[in-house]
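Before relying on records like the one below, remember that each one covers exactly one chain. Contacts with other chains, cofactors or solvent are not represented anywhere in the record.
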Amino acid sequence: MAVTGTAQTITPADAGFDAGRLARIDDHFKQYVDDGRLPGWQIVVSRKGEIAHSSTYGKRNIETDLPWEPDTICRMFSMTKPITSVAAMILYEEGKLQLKDKVSKYIPSFGNARVYRGGSTTAPITEGLTEPMKIWHLLTHTSGLTYGFHNNHVTDALHRQAGFEWGIPKGMDLEACCDVWAGIPLAFQPGTEWLYGVSTDVLGRIVEVVSGQSLDEFFRERILDPLGMTDTEFWVEDDKRNRLAELYYPVNKKTAVMPKAPLDKKPTMLGGGGGLCGTAADYLRFCHMLLNGGELDGERILGSRTVKYMATNHLPGGAILEDFGRPLFAETEYNGMGFGLGFSVVLDSAENKVIGSAGQYAWGGAASTAFWIDPVEEIVAIFLTQLLPSSTYPIRPILQQLVYQALVD
């Protein structure tokens, strides 16, 4: 696998796709731009490490009439999480941490964590931990940590009160954020439920503590540079700013510009849960490394067994998200799915009601970005756009059904 960009490297037929059927992908998603639902998008589909389909459409900036191009830079938001999870597993492979290690071993403030049992935001009733929060809880989102933007539980409101919703209090670094989160009651006892939250940000802080490096330095040295991911970073350099896509949100089935933090310099808080910006070409190399068992172009990031282990359902008792979790978006997205160490994992595509393969692993970002890796069919698919929130349109399942209906080999 030596793909460096997003240009097509193989014909659809040679990749096992029907070219006419594959064209349905663009035909469908062009409508989202033409009627104003999306500003623009980029789609890349590869098989066995070769790009069979690559396309862009629409604008990266509507106001300045800049087109979406193959090297457009996006806010990846939660597509940062798999990279942070890989970083933690690099340290795991070196014996520098264990999945059963207590989080408080590395971040002492979590030793005093409490769990919400009742009451209001002004007078919450809490209890102590019945089981310590562990690293595997962070990787699987079973820690009890939440996000302020969920808006469906008292603990979410407590995060908002502390200044955490779509951003962080000004001037705080990752270490300080973790200490504040440790003082907010958890939504449940660790290991008893699944809930999307700041778990991966806390994991990123553990990477810093264990490695003795800042998260951006560790990413660059151990993942980004070895893989040639030259456009992926927590900020966007001046000479690349023109390539950065604008961020939008929906208003009456159209788009409006979203207020946002500047990305012109290294942020104070390096968010392993959602802070990276990057390109489709870079993320494709990351995905190809995983599909290839942890190695790409002679650079080994993880062992092959570690990758398989990460893409295994780690929810207690083999539970599925529909039963074990507090889903953040449409519940149907989680039917037939478990959760591994940093990825959702398809256990039963029939139960999921979206064509695919058992063992397929994936995640997405808040701005409606998404990727998946299918080890059975050896497919990687990436969809980039910039529209908050990701639950606005059913982009991910529709893209998946359009990709698989085109397979004919």
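Residues 366 and 390 are 5 Å apart (CA to CA).
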